[in-house]
């Protein structure tokens, strides 16, 4: 009787352990999408940083006997009208496209965050003047504003970054101002002020750190929008004028061959779509992670 009683709990422990192990292997669809999006973003960032590790050919290699070849083993995504490998063009073009996306978000986030922080924290006439100026800019659609700035400044990498950044500044300013207003009158701010904390100390140590979460989430999601806007400007001929085109320029160059060589503009468009979707998935996950209501639940 003792041997039977001892064997039964051991069998249950093994069965329980097997069940726990099987649960660990069960990956939810949302987790799978997040991991897949992270892989896509990391891969494209590697392509932008070290394209020579990924691309099988140089983007300037022109082969007259391999013009407009369909996707095959030697050229996974086909060749264009100059005999260049489309996959290599996409890999090398990722550097300019991703730089425009990330740099414009950094510049726009800093300028908009500073504008909104000053308006929300100081209030009064400072808030009224800055926000009325911000409202005037917001009356112009972001893409149209970026197009006007890019047309005025002319083609160039930093001109495109500035154009895309300025189009996003009003949204960052509005979000930052609202967050500052919700934080600056909280009890712990009042307590810090009552014990003699200076205005600069209150802003730098308490108000600003507790107001950055929405701005970070907005910046993460804004990378995809910035790349779309930058690609649109490049598609219209206002992008970077270099021998290695970015994704928007590849779309523009391949549109004339859509009926005879669909792969020239289809695959750069898929690269843009995959990156924007992936960065939006990561941004949504970051928003959920920084949301205090979801952390408490």
From TrEMBL:
<keyword id="KW-1003">Cell membrane</keyword>
<comment type="similarity">
    <text>Belongs to the binding-protein-dependent transport system permease family.</text>
</comment>
<dbReference type="InterPro" id="IPR035906">
    <property type="entry name" value="MetI-like_sf"/>
</dbReference>
<keyword id="KW-0812">Transmembrane</keyword>
<keyword id="KW-1133">Transmembrane helix</keyword>
<dbReference type="Pfam" id="PF00528">
    <property type="entry name" value="BPD_transp_1"/>
</dbReference>
<protein>
    <submittedName>
        <fullName>Peptide/nickel transport system permease protein</fullName>
    </submittedName>
</protein>
<keyword id="KW-0472">Membrane</keyword>
<dbReference type="InterPro" id="IPR000515">
    <property type="entry name" value="MetI-like"/>
</dbReference>
<feature type="transmembrane region" description="Helical">
    <location>
        <begin position="260"/>
        <end position="283"/>
    </location>
</feature>
<feature type="transmembrane region" description="Helical">
    <location>
        <begin position="32"/>
        <end position="54"/>
    </location>
</feature>
<feature type="transmembrane region" description="Helical">
    <location>
        <begin position="215"/>
        <end position="240"/>
    </location>
</feature>
<dbReference type="InterPro" id="IPR050366">
    <property type="entry name" value="BP-dependent_transpt_permease"/>
</dbReference>
<feature type="transmembrane region" description="Helical">
    <location>
        <begin position="98"/>
        <end position="122"/>
    </location>
</feature>
<keyword id="KW-0813">Transport</keyword>
<feature type="transmembrane region" description="Helical">
    <location>
        <begin position="143"/>
        <end position="168"/>
    </location>
</feature>
<feature type="domain" description="ABC transmembrane type-1">
    <location>
        <begin position="94"/>
        <end position="283"/>
    </location>
</feature>
């Amino acid at each position: 009787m003792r041997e039977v009683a001892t064997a039964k709990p051991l069998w249950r422990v093994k069965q329980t352990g097997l069940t726990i192990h099987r649960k660990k292997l069960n990956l939810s669809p949302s987790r799978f999408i997040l991991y897949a999006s992270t892989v896509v973003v990391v891969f494209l960032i590697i392509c932008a940083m070290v394209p020579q590790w990924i691309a099988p050919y140089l983007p300037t290699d022109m082969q007259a006997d391999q013009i407009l070849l369909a996707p095959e083993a030697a050229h996974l995504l086909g060749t264009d009208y100059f005999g260049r490998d489309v996959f290599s063009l996409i890999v090398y073009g990722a550097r300019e496209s991703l730089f425009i996306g990330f740099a414009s978000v950094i510049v726009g986030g800093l300028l908009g965050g500073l504008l909104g922080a000053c308006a929300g924290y100081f209030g009064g006439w400072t808030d009224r003047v800055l926000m009325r100026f911000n409202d005037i800019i917001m009356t112009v659609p972001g893409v149209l504003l970026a197009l006007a700035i890019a047309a005025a400044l002319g083609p160039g990498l930093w001109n495109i970054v500035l154009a895309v950044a300025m189009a996003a500044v009003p949204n960052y300013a509005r979000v930052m101002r609202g967050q500052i207003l919700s934080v600056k009158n909280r009890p712990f701010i009042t307590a810090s002020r009552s014990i003699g904390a200076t205005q600069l100390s209150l802003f730098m140590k308490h108000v600003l750190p507790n107001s950055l979460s929405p701005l970070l989430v907005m910046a993460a999601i804004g990378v995809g929008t910035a790349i779309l806007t930058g690609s649109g400007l490049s598609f219209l001929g206002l992008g970077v004028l270099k021998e290695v085109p970015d994704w928007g320029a590849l779309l523009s160059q391949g549109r004339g061959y859509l009926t005879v060589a669909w792969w020239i503009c289809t695959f750069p468009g898929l690269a843009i779509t995959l990156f924007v979707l992936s960065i939006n998935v990561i941004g949504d996950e970051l928003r959920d992670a920084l949301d205090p209501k979801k952390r408490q639940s």
